[in-house]
Amino acid sequence: MGESIKINSFELENVKRVKAVSYEPSPNGLTIIGGKNGQGKTSILDAIAWTLGGAKFEPSSAVRDGSYNPPKLEVKLSNGLVVTRSGNSSTLKVVDPEGKKSGQRILDGFIGQLALDLPKFMEMSDKEKANELLKLLGVEDELNKLEGKHQEVYAKRHSIGQIATQKDKYAKELVGYDDVPLEPISASELIQQQQAILLKNAENQKKRNNVSAIQAQMVTINNLVDETQKKLEELQAKQAQLAEDYDIATTAAKDLEDESTAELEEQIKNVDAINQKVRANQERARALQEAADYKADYDNLTGELESIREDKNKLLESVQMPLSGLSIQDGVLIYNDRQWDCMSGAEQLKVATAIVRALNPKCGFVLMDKLEQMDVDTMKEFGAWLESEGLQVIATRVTNNQDECSIIIEDGHIKGEEYSNVAAPVNETKPENEWGGF
């Protein structure tokens, strides 16, 4: 790549507030045009932008008030081109070092539009600034794909997060009960258990009744023994047998205990209430599980988002930024860990200048208005940085302090130079300033 193109000199007459200004800016660093408001500082920048940028930069009222002559503009560039606009129609003429004439197309080939209109970049949204840099870095399409995937996953995660929160809230609002079964109980099973116990108790009662019956028979037989001696032997044998049966029956019935059905009866009576509590516990457990499942999905998507962010950061780390400390995070410019609205005015100008220069490396100059937002020390640092980068900045600053400026504009011409209808020669010698070229 060849050396970037700078402005060697400019001669401007009768444009906006400018009467006649002729000057050779420093090829590197800062050239500061000072003066009070309304004296023609910004008019100089507008005139240079119009000369080089074409009709889109033409002021709506180009002719200086009170002048009968049309604007006459000339800018000489370091590649040897001489660009002029003159006459009532402001006709453009571009002449190369060999005397050949050309037009606006050759200028557009190496002059960055944002270099002529830095406020356009400064006024862009954070997203638009970042997009300009991404175009420059050549990763716009790939980063946009990652950004689209990030937004898709973020929206999905957001939706699942809302559902998880709702499910968890719903589950925690449900009533829970202790000391109830995990599953609903069956009334028919309880009734079957009750009937089995009742049947067993009936058998026990039969055995008790049998004891009583044998005992009654013994009484009868004993009476018969007294009444009839002749049947004594038969009755005694019968008596002995009954006594044996009595002993057996007594032994069988002695340890019998009847089981209570009160608990089953109570459960049967309360089966609906118990089952209602069981179902409530089951619903609560199901809702809590749903909430936990959605929370797990949310966490998984959070991990996916982190992975996408890492891919984006790796992509941006793999490219060369035009300024140390400059990066793009979440689609916006970051300089020294600060977003655009948190940068100082000086930092914003430095970032904008670096990006605008990188967008078109052939163009080695930038026009910059309102440099008064920089203090003197910051301006010195900025000028030194421009020199180190081989950049030329022609800027305006509201001040009459000669120590802070390259020239001061007063009433449309350079202060200290007598105004005439002919612009001053551009090859006059000017003192070098110790701040990065101005």
TrEMBL record:
Record-linked Pfam families: AAA_23
Coiled-coil ranges per UniProt: 218-318
Rad50/SbcC-type AAA domain location: 11-276
Keyword line: Coiled coil
Domain of life: Bacteria
The keyword Protease is annotated on this UniProt entry: no
Protein name: AAA family ATPase
